[in-house]
Structures are given as C-alpha cells and as structure tokens.
Design a protein that fits this description.
single chain; 143 residues; 78% helix; mainly alpha; globular
Length: 143
C-alpha cells in the first residue's frame, strides 16, 4: 500500500493530522491535566494501531524482531512519550498557534542529528530551508 503512494503525500497527510492534533488537544485538555490527556491519547493510538495490525495481517511475533530493532524502537517510544508529555504541557499553558511551530523545531534538529549521526547530507538549498524553518518557528513563538 505505502509503496504506491509517494512519500510526499504521506508527509503532507502527517502534517495535516499533526495540525488537527494540536487543535483537538488544545480543546481536549481544557478540563483535565496534560498528563492524563497524554495517557488517553496514547490509549486511543494503541487501540487503533492494534486494530490496524490485526485487520491488515501485519502482526509479527515479538520473538522474530531483532534485538537492535527492539532497542531503537523502545528508545524511540521513550522519546515519543517524553515529547508528547512536554507538548501537552506546553499546549495546556500556551497558544496552539505558538506551541506547534516551536514543536516543529524538531525538523531542524532532525536535519542536524541526521547529518551528525547518520551521515545524511542536505544541499545548500536544503540547509537554507532548515534555517528558514528555525527562523519562522522563533518568529511565531515570540510574536
């Protein structure tokens, strides 16, 4: 399924859903604490992905997954959880239109970490884009 759809489409859908996440979360955390909101969101994600895996036949026995894969997916999960906790706390006290762009500074950090840790290379135009993303996030955050 995902081999026939260009990565750009998936990335744009990700951005659209991330935008909806910020708006829905900002409304949803009005009456509860940010950590409980994160927990509820996580339960929904676990249930939806469990159904998706079951219905699509993609479930794989945990013992067949390599240890290195487990290690890095667990680390990724811990980082995701920490990110979500911080994001929801920021949304609780800040404006969604300011919190979300600062959160997207992750794009800048991914470019830097990708270059330093993974040996990925961006063109000069790519790095200019990264600088513009950083500049835009800072401008929106402090506007």
């Amino acid at each position: 399924m995902n081999g026939t759809v260009p990565w750009q489409v998936w990335a744009l859908l990700s951005a659209a859903f991330a935008a909806m996440t910020a708006i829905f979360a900002k409304i949803g955390i009005e009456a509860i604490g940010s950590d409980l909101a994160t927990f509820i969101r996580t339960l929904v994600i676990v249930l939806v992905l469990g159904c998706l895996l079951a219905l699509s036949g993609q479930w794989q026995a945990p013992g067949t997954i390599p240890v290195r894969t487990w290690l890095f997916l667990v680390l990724s999960g811990l980082a995701t959880g920490a990110s979500w906790l911080c994001y929801f706390r920021a949304l609780k006290v800040g404006q969604a239109a300011q919190v979300a762009p600062v959160d997207k500074l992750s794009v800048v950090l991914v470019a830097v970490f990708g270059a330093l840790l993974l040996g990925e290379r961006l063109s000069l135009t790519g790095w200019i884009g990264v600088v513009l993303i950083a500049t835009g996030a800072v401008l929106v955050a402090f506007a």
